[in-house]
Amino acid sequence: MYSLRLNEFKTFLKDEFSFTTEKHYAGIYMAYGMVFGSGIGVSFGTAISSALGISLGMSLGTGIGMLFGMLYGAQKDAEAKRLGRVV
Fold first, then answer.
1. What angle is formed at CA 86 by the lines to CA 63 and CA 26, rounded to 5 degrees?
2. Number of domains in the chain
3. Containing domain of residue 67, as a range?
4. Whole-angstrom distance, CA of residue 69 vs CA of residue 54
5. Any idea which of 10-24, 31-45, 53-67 has the lowest mean pLDDT?
6. How far apart are the C-alpha atoms of 60 and 40, rounded to whole Å?
7. Is 58 part of any domain?
8. Is the overall model pTM greater than 0.90, yes or no?
9. Residue 28, strand partner residues
């Protein structure tokens, strides 16, 4: 019962006052970076060669995309903390 009320309260704070939890944006943008990095890596890997290029492009694309996503998410988290919108 308490966890249900806590989740309702967090949802209310998020919807009404734009509050977020700590490291909220880092997790979201890390996932976006992995998805888009994989797609871009596969497309570049296919242009290089078929078998080795795809695996290399996917692994490098995922890693680089995750890195950029985490950096951008950390920047957004720092901005939210600076504005006092972190619960």
1. 5
2. 1
3. 24-87
4. 21
5. 10-24
6. 10
7. yes
8. no
9. none
Q: How far apart are CA 56 and CA 85, in angstroms?
A: 40
Residue 44 lies in a domain: yes
* Phi and psi torsions of 86, nearest 5°: -110, 130
pLDDT at 53: 85
- Residue 34 has a pLDDT of 95
pLDDT digits (tens, 9 = 90+) for 21-39: 889 999 999 999 999 999 9
Q: Which tokens in the block code for residue 53?
A: 């290029």
Length of the chain: 87
CB 83 within 8 A of CB 16: no
Helix (H) or strand (E) holding 31: helix 24-48
The token duo for 47 is 């242009």
Task: Provide the pLDDT confidence category of residue 48 given band limits of 50, 70 and 90.
Answer: confident
Nearest-5° angle of CA 62, CA 63, CA 66? 80
- CA nearest 30: which of 77, 57, 67, 61? 67
DSSP-derived letter for residue 20 is B
